[in-house]
Design goal:
Blueprint lengths: L8 E2 L10 H9 L11 H13 L4 E5 L2 H12 L4 E6 L3 H4 L4 H4 L4 E5 L8 H7 L12 E8 L12 H13 L3 E6 L2 H8 L3 H4 L5 E5 L10 E5 L1 H13 L8 H13 L4 H16 L4 E2 L9 E6 L3 H10 L2 E2 L1 E4 L2 E5 L6 H15 L1
Helix pairs in contact: 1-11, 2-11, 3-10, 6-7, 12-14
The structure holds pyridoxal-5'-phosphate (PLP).
């Protein structure tokens, strides 16, 4: 489905998705109020629905995934604390060092595989202030990312996911999921999101990625956690007024854009196999579990990306010999065919 005027195929990210006309119509019709005063009915409906869907007591609608993570980290920690996450985690790599600037926390990085940590790695990464003669920071939060973006869209198996939460709890740590693409993980593993997140304290869910809403994330957790998070949202300047217009796009996405993500996954798998069959690329097919393909290139990735761009196809090079292709709502079957033809002509 491509509802905006472009002859280019945009594989750069699932964040490029634009609201469809039906979604725009839903936004147009949305009843709104002043969310800072707590009376926007559409925001309330979204928060309640997402909280129920994830088996949590309450939800908070915020402007972005970064804001949702920042509020969660700040709510879970105090200055001098330490957060454990994988070395590729978005909260560490791409959120402006918010954990340091906004939380006064340090990060203990885990050397996971494809962005996924093991319970043992988490156990050995948690350092507690108590009993360290005041040498250590206080490891108080474990943050997992599912799916893992830099891990290539990989997802945790449920047993490992549960065990990480159990280990964290045993060590007196809170747990947060960066679930920017958690519905992709749920579709790929067949585990429903409430079960997936059962043992975690908070989850950040993005609507402006594969789900196709223009703006917005919802943070869910216990009522007490969300009450604290609400204050941090205010202090971060994230209190907003007639946000129901945006919330209605997210409600629309829940109704219409979740199940269809299996199509993205199937297309990603075919694209990965197609690229891997060409001498220019190597793709670890085991990591292609959802909507992303990370490919190693023989020639510099920037040059390969340029060649595609000259043929109307956009993607990102991520390092000297690595590029990323992301499949989403607007990538059609014809786009996959055209990408295949261009790839075979350029690199076959
Ligand atoms: C895994 C992950 N978490 C968080 C974010 C942040 O989302 P936003 O760009 O809405 O701030 C992203 C963005 O791509 C992401 O990939």
């Amino acid at each position: 489905m491509r509802e905006y005027p472009s002859s280019r195929i945009d594989f750069r990210s699932d964040t490029v998705t634009q609201p469809t006309s039906a979604m725009r119509e839903a936004m147009h019709q949305a009843p709104v109020g002043d969310d800072v005063l707590g009376d926007d009915p559409t925001v309330i409906a979204l928060q309640d629905r997402v909280a129920a869907l994830f088996g949590k007591e309450a939800g908070l609608f915020v402007a972005s995934g970064t804001m949702s993570n920042a509020i969660a980290l700040r709510t879970h920690t105090v200055p001098g604390d330490e957060i454990v996450c994988d070395k590729t985690a978005h909260i560490y790599r791409y959120e402006g060092g918010g954990y340091a600037a906004l939380c006064g926390a340090s990060i203990a990085l885990v050397d996971g595989v494809s962005g996924l940590m093991t319970p043992e790695q988490v156990r050995s990464a948690v350092r507690k202030a108590e009993g360290s003669g005041s040498h250590y920071p206080n490891g108080s939060l474990v943050c997992v990312e599912n799916t893992s973006n830099l891990g290539g869209g990989s997802c945790y198996d449920q047993e490992t996911f549960d065990e990480i939460a159990r280990v964290a709890k045993t060590l007196g740590c809170s747990t947060h999921i960066d679930g920017a693409r958690i519905f992709n993980a749920s579709i790929a593993t067949g585990v429903d999101v409430a079960r997936m997140c059962e043992h975690y304290d908070s989850v950040s869910i993005c609507f402006s990625k594969g789900l196709g809403a223009p703006v917005g994330s919802v943070l869910v957790g216990s009522a007490a956690f969300i009450a604290k998070a609400h204050r941090w949202r205010k202090m971060f300047g994230g209190g907003w007024r007639q946000a129901g217009m945006l919330a209605s796009a997210c409600l629309y996405a829940l109704d219409h854009h979740v199940e269809r993500m299996s199509e993205d996954h199937e297309r990603a798998r075919r694209i990965a196999t197609m690229l891997n069959d060409l001498p220019m690329f190597t793709v670890d097919l085991n990591t292609v579990q959802t909507n992303m393909i990370y490919a190693q290139t023989v020639e510099p990735a920037a040059k390969v990306v340029e060649q595609y761009a000259a043929n109307g196809i956009d993607m990102f090079d991520l390092s000297e010999h690595r590029l990323r292709v992301v499949v989403h709502l607007h990538i059609t079957e014809e786009d996959v065919q055209r990408f295949t033809e261009v790839s075979q002509r350029l690199f076959g």
